[in-house]
Structures are given as C-alpha cells and as structure tokens.
C-alpha cells in the first residue's frame, strides 16, 4: 500500500533539472564552490513497513545519485513493536562530521565529508488516510552542497562492492589459475558493469585467501 506522492515521477526529470548551478564542479572538497546548492527530488512520504521504506530508498538513491547512511535508530515501544524500530535518521554520505571520526585507518567517510546538511528522518506513526501505523518521512532536507551525478554515485565503495557469490566464485577460480589483477578487473567490468578499481581487486584477492586455504585444508 503506497501513497501517490512517490519520488518516481519527479525522479524521471533529467539530471539537468535539479543539477547544481556550476555543472563543471567536481566531487572534491577543494573544488566545490561555497554557495553550491543542489536540490534533489522529494522522497515518498508513507510506507507500510521498514522493509518497504528500505526498498523505496534504494530505488530513490539510484534514481537521484544520492547515497544515504543510517546515523541513528530508536527502538519501537510496545504500541508499535511489530515495526522493530520507531525512528531512523539518515544522513548523506558527504554529511559526516570530520571531528567525530575515529583515528583508525578507515577514512572513507572522512575523505567524502563536505559537511553536507542533507538529512532524512522517518518515524512510525498513525497514518490519517489508513488509520494504521505506518512509516512516515517526517523530515527531509534535500539541498546538497556538492554536485550529484551518476559517475560519482557509482564510484562510492558501497556501490563498487561485489556481492554476487557466483561472480566471487569465478574470481576465485581466476586467482587459482594465476589470473593477474588487471585481467580480473577487466572481467569484473564486463560482467558486473560496476566501477571496480584495481585496488578493489587487490582487496578482493586478500579477502578470498582464507576461503582458498580452507578449501585446501579440507582436501588434504
């Protein structure tokens, strides 16, 4: 059950209709003009469940070249316990606070931080139209201070990640056969269409090592 206020229709507009004033701005904290403002299309307001909300959000992100990360979640009370969570807050991938980052080596969020103020809040509440508890988007700041485009969106680590077990198995076979990283990279580009980098391939090889060693132990 969904409301008619879906992002789908608004998201069909070309990127130029909601792109930044400076179309040449690159995805770099040093190149974005201070007054850059990019307003993304609105997101659907009502959802029957968190699963439906998540599915709609995935589609919305792909259509609008935005990437949201969950920042906080509040568990539901006994009144609407079936939903699991009562409230969730999401921020854009460029909105992480630099000062709040740890001192570890995983600096992905830090490197992408522009201090973007985009935020999306959703809460379980009674829907007037259906008189049932549903997930409602109660707050959505959509003005980005950086460019939105598909090339940048596809380059985010989470969008480059390979999760298909069949593809990973074939990569493992290529490694066993002595396939070089560049050959594996070419194969991944041809089969997945993702913007996988050579560094991603090297990381993948390292992650698959325990699997190969475990397989060899079983055979022995």
Automatic annotation (TrEMBL):
Superkingdom of source: Eukaryota
Biased composition regions of type Polar residues, renumbered to the chain: 1-17
Region feature (Disordered): 1-39
Name this protein carries in UniProt: FAR1 domain-containing protein
Organism: Phytophthora nicotianae
């Amino acid at each position: 059950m969904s409301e008619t206020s879906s992002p789908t229709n608004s998201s069909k507009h070309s990127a130029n209709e909601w792109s930044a004033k400076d179309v040449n701005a690159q995805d770099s904290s040093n190149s974005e003009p201070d007054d850059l403002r990019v307003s993304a299309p609105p997101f659907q307001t009502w959802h029957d469940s968190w699963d439906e909300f998540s599915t709609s959000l995935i589609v919305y992100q792909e259509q609008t070249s935005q990437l949201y990360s969950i920042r906080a979640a509040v568990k539901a009370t006994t009144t609407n316990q079936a939903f699991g969570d009562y409230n969730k807050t999401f921020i854009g991938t460029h909105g992480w606070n630099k000062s709040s980052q740890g001192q570890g080596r995983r600096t992905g969020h830090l490197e992408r931080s522009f201090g973007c103020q985009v935020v999306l809040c959703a809460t379980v509440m009674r829907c007037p139209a259906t008189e049932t508890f549903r997930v409602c988007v109660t707050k959505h700041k959509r003005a980005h201070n950086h460019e939105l485009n598909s090339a940048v969106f596809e380059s985010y680590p989470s969008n480059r990640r390979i999760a298909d077990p069949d593809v990973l198995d074939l990569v493992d076979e290529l490694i066993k056969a002595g396939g070089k990283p560049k050959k594996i990279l070419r194969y991944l580009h041809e089969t997945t269409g993702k913007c996988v980098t050579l560094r991603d391939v090297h990381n993948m090889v390292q992650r698959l090592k325990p699997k190969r060693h475990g397989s060899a132990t079983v055979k022995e």
